[in-house]
Design a protein that fits this description.
By secondary structure, the chain is an alpha+beta fold. It has seven helices and 18 strands. The protein is about 20% helix and about 35% strand. The longest helix has 11 residues. The radius of gyration is 20 Å and the shape is globular. Bound molecules: zinc ion.
Length: about 260
């Protein structure tokens, strides 16, 4: 039985997820806080199991979808499992796990050090869409390409911030001086962070974003954990997308609630 980061999973998952399987398992593990069976906490390093329920549309080969739901349990509570069923009708997944990070990169140029505010965002690849005649892309990358994001040529930050151009404006960042940062698609929040504005990194990010622009790095296969953002696999698999996105500044909540 394959094991990734202490998580035991059903080897047949690979038939569905292909080269994305390990990343999918890693992300499910990173998102899980408690055991889906006993609701107890998942201690670091303890043996875990992954259960994946797959639903597939009626005509996947032609144009339809597969939807994945993953549950992490203590291995002692439940063995790994994979279920599969065909469903009549599509619809988007009810819940998508999202992962994001904000940071600043400094790029040396002829004019000295220039700082760029970055947001990195991905979600669990729980939906794949088959585009007729095209290679199969994760849903997030496909969606952002439709919103005029561009494929990143490499995982090199200097190249990314230089190349990234404005997308179609439907993806934006909302920020406030008291540390609330959110990412919106069509004005709907996709992901948000509530940060301490006194924290040095947060203060630097807000200041950098205020003086210019925010570069969004996104797409399926992006590895985002609490401690790192790894673009390499996404870039190598052709699913890393980038764009400059507008920042809309909101009033700090304390002021806003006074009105
Ligand atoms: Zn348990």
């Amino acid at each position: 039985m394959p094991i990734t980061n202490n998580i035991h999973w059903d080897a047949r998952l690979k038939d569905f997820k292909g080269p994305d399987t390990t990343l999918y398992v890693e992300q499910a593990g990173a998102a899980a806080r408690k055991c889906a069976a006993c609701q107890g906490p998942l201690e670091q390093g303890s043996p875990l199991s992954l259960t994946v329920d797959i639903e597939q549309g009626p005509n996947y080969e032609k144009d339809l979808f597969r939807r994945y739901k993953a549950y992490v349990c203590h291995l002692s509570c439940k063995d790994p499992e994979l279920t599969w069923k065909q469903v009549a009708d599509g619809g988007m997944p009810e819940q998508i796990e999202t992962f994001g990070s904000r940071f600043v990169v400094g790029i040396e140029s002829a004019f000295g050090l220039r700082k760029f505010a970055i947001l990195a965002f991905t979600n669990t690849n729980n939906l794949t869409i088959r585009e007729p005649g095209a290679e199969r892309r994760g849903a997030l990358t496909a969606e952002l390409l439709m919103r005029k994001f561009q494929l990143a040529p490499s995982a090199d930050y200097a190249q990314i911030v230089t190349m990234a151009a404005e997308a179609d404006g439907t993806v934006q960042c909302r920020a406030s001086a008291d540390g609330l940062i959110s990412l919106e698609f069509d004005n709907q929040p996709m992901w948000s962070l509530d940060l301490d504005p006194q924290d040095d990194d947060t203060a630097t990010w807000l200041e950098t974003a205020r003086s210019g622009e925010v570069t969004l790095i996104s797409g399926n296969h992006l590895r985002i954990t609490e401690t790192e953002v790894d673009l390499e696999f996404a870039a190598a698999s052709g699913s890393l997308v980038i764009a400059k996105i507008p920042v809309v500044w909101s009033l700090p909540r304390k002021l806003a609630s006074r009105n």
